[in-house]
Task: inverse folding
DNA sequence: CCAGCCGGACTTTTT
DNA sequence: GTCCGGCTGG
């Protein structure tokens, strides 16, 4: 345009270096609603990060005018790191998960919903507790808690509120939903689904707010678009009604979250939804050898509802996929462990090896074998650091100190460590809180004034309440100091130390670890926000250990060698999916699994397997037959038994 | 109120 | 098998 064109071209040139033509096109296309269909291993993160840098470096927008949303914290972190390396000033970019971005927006507009800006974000644990509570009041079997929690989440995924006609109030789920929503609101809390639902509602009901954000975000980038649910879609459509400046990256072949409310339809419908759209396909794969890509392509081709794309490489065809039959689950784990040892001798690092399974519980059998073989491993996505009992206890104290209305936190710790306030005393407090629609903390204070509780309960409840109050007063304390005071003054640490078991030892270690992590935070609120939204601990990344995880949590990762275990009908594809008639999603899961590998894929299946303490024989997974024969080798061989 | 024992349910995937 | 929750006796 002007005299600085040459300079701009130089900048462009520098950033676009090393991109293939399609990637380049995806980066420089800014004036259209752009959908980047990005096959596995085709460099979508590279495109996204380069695009952000490109926008900033060329001055098309200020960093703060760019919104980039991902699904996982891992993806957000990776993107942040890579963008920062490319361009300074990128820290002003609104880059984060859907949930963290929404939390940010909701905090600055909480009053419009009737929440305080310091509302609490509750996790699934609290959610389930609350639902169980409500079920108990309704005299319904607690077994319903999980189905109810699920139903509520699915409604929220679609921005359906309790009074919506689509909620059938004659069902348990519908009834609980209304009470649940009232109760959680009275606690000044929101759950994951609320984060999106409330922001959508704010946008809908306050056009000036929506307008503000629309003007603010000149460019919106969305990662894993195939996994967006209805409320995320509504959210995006409101922020970018015609799709100007919108760039969605995704792969319909890797849509594996329908059970969580994701709608593949969103990506399939892209061209109809927005004006002036453009689709760029990234098909050139830089990750895997030819046989792996060939096998993956032949499998996914069996799906009927796809936009269609074929990943390819001009690199080596490499080794064929190995399919091996095992006599039973035990043998399967043994085969895998032995093969891992062999790979290690061929100098494949442990950190470059992953064992992927369909369901979380399947990791146990492999853990046992790996321990027996002395192979170091980690279970990814299993018990998360912030999910551990002792960590949640400590955080509950901090939550209560920060926000005394947080009755879920109150309930968690009122008798932890044991201070003689058991079920009966608690139930009195709870009843009072419900009757007057006040927090448990307030109810406690009231009942202490009335002095209607048993003397021993009065004494310890007073101590507890006073402790919380005094911590609240000491504003100058840092989060670490607060945490130390909690562990000390409540006797929590002492109680643990007295147990002297291996388990309590580990818990103490975990708490110490948390204290170290706490040093990164200057105020309590920042830390609480962090733990509410970030479920994984960032460490353990560089460990040279074998990764054990579900296919779902493997998405976005890559390894030199990948073991895909339990390929049997009923296990994978899973029975539930078969019943729901959702085999295509299982097939996509298989596709995701295979494409995690750079060089080696080993697929195993067991003829017999113990489920619920009962032996079952399963047929080999249908997916095995769907892999094009030219890319695989079968080893039916001997059954290895001890 | 609490510790310890017993019986049943559990297993799809998670921000 | 294991974990959780309910029941019972101290």
Result:
């Amino acid at each position: 345009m002007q005299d600085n064109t040459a300079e701009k071209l130089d900048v462009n040139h520098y950033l676009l270096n090393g991109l293939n033509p399609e990637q380049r096109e995806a980066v420089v296309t800014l004036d259209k609603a752009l959908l980047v269909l990005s096959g596995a291993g085709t460099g979508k993160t590279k495109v996204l990060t380069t695009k952000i840098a490109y926008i900033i470096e060329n001055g098309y927008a200020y960093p703060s005018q760019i919104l980039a949303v991902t699904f996982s914290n891992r993806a957000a972190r990776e993107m942040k790191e890579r963008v920062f390396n490319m361009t300074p000033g990128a820290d002003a970019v609104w880059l984060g998960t859907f949930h963290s971005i929404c939390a940010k927006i909701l905090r600055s507009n909480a009053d419009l919903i009737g929440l305080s800006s310091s509302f609490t974000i509750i996790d699934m644990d609290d959610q389930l507790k609350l639902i169980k509570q409500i079920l108990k009041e309704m005299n319904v079997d607690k077994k319903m808690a999980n189905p109810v929690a699920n139903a509520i989440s699915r409604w929220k995924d679609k921005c359906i509120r309790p009074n919506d006609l689509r909620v059938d109030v004659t069902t348990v789920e519908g009834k609980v939903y209304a009470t649940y929503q009232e109760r959680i609101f009275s606690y000044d809390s929101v759950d994951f689904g609320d984060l999106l639902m409330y922001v959508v509602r704010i946008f809908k009901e306050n056009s000036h707010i929506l307008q503000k954000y629309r003007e603010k975000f000149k460019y919106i980038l969305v990662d894993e678009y195939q996994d967006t649910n209805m409320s995320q879609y509504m959210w995006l459509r409101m922020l970018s009604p015609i799709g100007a400046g919108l760039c969605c990256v995704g792969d319909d072949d890797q849509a594996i979250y329908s059970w969580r409310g994701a709608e593949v339809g969103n990506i399939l419908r892209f061209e109809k939804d927005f004006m002036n759209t453009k689709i760029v396909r990234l098909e050139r794969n830089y990750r895997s050898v030819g046989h792996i890509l060939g096998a993956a392509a032949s499998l996914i081709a069996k799906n009927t509802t796809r936009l269609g794309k074929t990943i390819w490489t001009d690199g080596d065809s490499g080794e064929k996929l190995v399919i091996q039959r095992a006599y039973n689950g035990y043998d399967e784990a043994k085969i895998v462990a032995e093969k891992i040892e062999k790979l290690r001798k061929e100098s494949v690092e442990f950190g470059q090896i992953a064992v992927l399974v369909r369901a979380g519980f399947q990791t146990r059998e492999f853990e046992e074998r790996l321990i027996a073989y002395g192979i170091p491993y980690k279970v990814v996505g299993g018990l998360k650091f912030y999910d551990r009992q002792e960590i949640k206890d400590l955080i509950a104290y901090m939550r209560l100190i920060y926000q005394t209305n947080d009755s879920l936190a109150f309930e968690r710790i009122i008798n932890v460590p044991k201070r003689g306030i058991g079920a009966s005393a608690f139930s009195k407090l709870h009843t009072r809180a419900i009757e007057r629609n006040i927090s448990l903390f307030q109810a406690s204070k009231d009942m202490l004034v009335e002095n209607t509780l048993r003397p021993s309960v009065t004494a310890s409840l007073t101590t507890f309440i006073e402790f919380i109050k005094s911590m609240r007063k000491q504003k100058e304390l840092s989060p670490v100091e607060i945490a130390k005071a909690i562990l000390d003054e409540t006797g929590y640490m002492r109680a643990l130390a007295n147990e002297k078991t291996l388990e309590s030892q580990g818990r103490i270690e975990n708490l110490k670890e948390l204290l170290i992590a706490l040093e990164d935070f200057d105020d309590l609120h920042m830390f609480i926000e962090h733990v509410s939204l970030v479920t994984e601990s960032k460490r353990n990344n560089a460990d040279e250990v074998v990764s054990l995880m579900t296919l779902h949590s493997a998405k976005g990762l890559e390894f030199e060698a990948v073991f895909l275990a339990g390929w049997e009908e009923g296990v994978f594809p899973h029975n539930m999916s078969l019943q729901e008639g959702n085999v295509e999603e299982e097939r996509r899961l298989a596709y995701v699994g295979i494409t995690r590998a750079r060089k080696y894929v080993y697929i195993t299946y067991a003829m017999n397997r113990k489920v619920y303490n009962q032996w079952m024989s399963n047929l080999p997974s249908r997916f095995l037959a769907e892999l094009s024969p030219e890319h695989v080798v079968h080893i039916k061989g001997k059954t290895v038994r001890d």
User: Anything to note?
Assistant: Chain A has four domains: 2-106+197-284, 120-187, 292-384+538-635, 387-524. Residues 142, 364, 610, 612-613 of chain A lie near DNA strand C (CB under 10 Å from a C1').
